[in-house]
Design brief:
- The protein is α/β, with parallel strands linked by helices.
- Helix content is 35%, strand content 23%.
- The protein contains 18 helices and 24 strands.
- The protein is globular, with a radius of gyration of 26 Å.
Length: 549
């Protein structure tokens, strides 16, 4: 993905340029058509501003018209308001100044939904599900009055809290949190820092000689993070590797290329792009010899693996370099130019499509209303999808692969949520945050942080185990939260429920790596994938022979 700038100008002028094309090099007739369209648009805008039953704000009208125009093109071309554009840039850059929390407005309260491990908020003892009840401003030196002037956040939107909490590195912010089960507010002074958005969240040995890397996202720091993780695993005796791309939505193209290059020989194609304009048409090859070309590789994917994840998995599959295991990926592989607009917003515009080395178009087709496309992740994952003859392609070693519908795995293992395939009931529990809320009942042994007051509160140490009593306690807990317990579904989902409770407790108390390490031990997809390393090794041998021809 490339960032391109549009000269600072009125948004409406930018809109007319996008609709009609760029002036200057066009013929007179083309310019006439552009001006006619522009006149139609401005006449409509003027009529709305002057005649609509209520005053209408021009900026909102223009933004809405841009968004509406883009919705006629494809599901991914979109208008980004200034807030969304700023967040996208932070995600791409992999860092921002703040205290390291994500917040949402839940039931009218500003609630902490996640923390970055090692961040100022994490070190201060803030936990998920804490409510930011107040924010404060410390008085200036020498000023009279209380040390901190507090303002309640009731009725605030998340943007206002973000604006108050973020600030330059080294400065402090005052926040007061309400924790379920704790009678009084907890006042905290948190020093701001540069927050690094880590995309390689975990790297550990999943089995003797077998490394595991969870690549959660792609940002401008992903390849460097991956390099550090690979070095760590190699020093720990890694001989085989699992790269987990499940639920990875993608990111910058250059990072997908760099990640792929680590497992490919110099000169091998990684991806190519084709579009309407010549500048979009590029071929991308491995620029150097990868450092891990001899390591047997399994790549885990699922229905939510998209974009850069599909570029990596497609390149590994086409060159017979790694075995793809799991589910068919989402099928989003559009080249998008991100154009900055003069109002601080941005325009994500599709300019081309990605193709794997064998010539597969990764992008799925869409219907006119995008309805089927947007619900496609819930499609059948049995591997029985019919293919058109024109979609048939071949890997370097002659294996059959297919175009136009994401990356199909070499071995289908259905597991839509953390490697499991839970019922709708269990998915509902997860979406409502039931496992996170129940995890509040657990604290570390020796931890003095305020915890939920409960006769059933648990103090645990690393390596703790779920018990049947805890499962029954969870059932009573969700019933108390006005959730109708589906006994049959609960019994079906009990292993998933146990896994999610432990994952959320471990994540809260011992960190994401400990949580993921324990989850992979019971993750059906991950554990089944380990059984395919003999095939992955044979695939690597075949790839070497093909490369030597």
């Amino acid at each position: 993905m490339r960032l391109k700038g549009i000269p600072a100008a009125a948004v409406v002028v930018v809109l007319s340029a996008i609709v009609g094309g760029v002036f200057g090099s066009r013929t007179v007739s083309t310019q006439d058509r552009v001006m006619e369209r522009y006149r139609i648009y401005t006449a409509a805008l003027a009529a709305i501003e002057s005649q609509y039953v209520e005053p209408a704000e021009s900026a909102l009208l223009v933004e809405g018209s841009i968004d509406g125009m883009l919705r006629t093109l494809d599901p991914h071309s979109s208008y980004l308001d200034p807030r969304s554009y700023s967040r996208m840039r932070e995600q791409q850059e992999g860092r921002y100044p703040g205290i390291g929390i994500s917040i949402q407005k839940i039931n009218g309260e500003i609630t902490v939904t996640s923390l970055f491990e090692g961040s100022p908020a994490y070190r201060a003892g803030i936990r998920r599900n804490d409510v930011i009840a107040r924010v404060g401003k410390r008085k200036e030196p020498g000023a009279s009055g209380p040390d901190v002037v507090w303002e309640e956040t009731k009725g605030w939107e998340t943007d206002e809290v973000v604006k108050r909490v973020r600030g330059p590195k080294g400065t402090t912010t005052e926040i007061s949190i309400r924790r379920p089960g704790v009678d009084t507010l907890i006042d905290l002074t948190v020093e701001r820092d540069q927050i690094k958005i880590t995309t390689v969240r975990t790297a550990f040995m999943i089995a003797p000689g077998t490394g595991y890397i969870r690549l959660q996202d792609f940002s401008e720091t992903t390849n460097d993070e991956l390099g550090d993780a690979l070095t760590k695993l190699k020093s720990g005796g890694m001989q085989r590797l699992v790269v987990d791309l499940r639920d990875n939505p993608g990111g910058p193209l250059d990072q997908a290329i760099a990640v792929s290059n680590r497992f490919l020989k110099k000169g091998q194609m990684i991806v190519y792009t084709r579009g309407r304009i010549r500048s979009v048409e590029e071929d991308y090859h491995a620029s150097e010899q990868g450092g891990y070309i001899d390591v047997p590789l399994i790549v885990l994917t699922n229905r939510n693996s998209a974009s850069a994840s599909e570029i990596v998995s497609g390149a590994m599959q086409d060159h017979d370099r790694g075995l793809i295991v799991g589910e068919t990926t989402f099928g989003k592989a559009l080249v998008q130019g991100v154009y900055s607009l003069s109002n601080g917003g941005g325009l994500a515009l599709t300019t081309g499509r990605y193709y794997t080395p064998s010539g597969r178009m990764i992008q799925r087709p869409w219907d006119g209303a995008f309805d089927e496309y947007l619900t496609y992740s819930y499609r059948d994952q049995s591997g029985s999808r019919e293919h058109a003859a024109a979609d048939l392609k071949y890997t370097d070693g002659g294996r059959k692969v297919y175009s136009g519908g994401g990356i199909e795995p070499d071995h289908f293992l259905v597991g839509s949520v953390e490697g499991f395939n839970p019922t709708r009931f269990a998915r509902m529990l997860r979406e409502r945050g039931a496992f996170v809320s129940f995890a509040e009942r657990f604290t570390k042994e020796g931890d003095s942080r305020p915890a939920a007051k409960s006769a059933a509160a648990h103090k645990v140490a690393p390596g703790w185990q779920m018990t049947d009593a805890m499962v029954e306690e969870f059932k009573q807990f969700i019933a108390g939260e006005r959730v109708r317990v589906d006994e049959a579904a609960f019994k079906t989902d009990v292993n998933f429920i146990k896994a999610m409770i432990r994952f959320e407790v471990d994540n809260d108390l011992f960190g994401i790596e400990e949580a993921r390490r324990n989850l992979t031990k019971v993750d059906p997809q991950a554990q089944s994938a380990l059984g395919y390393f003999d095939e992955a090794r044979a695939l690597l041998t075949m790839a070497k022979k093909e490369a030597g021809k």
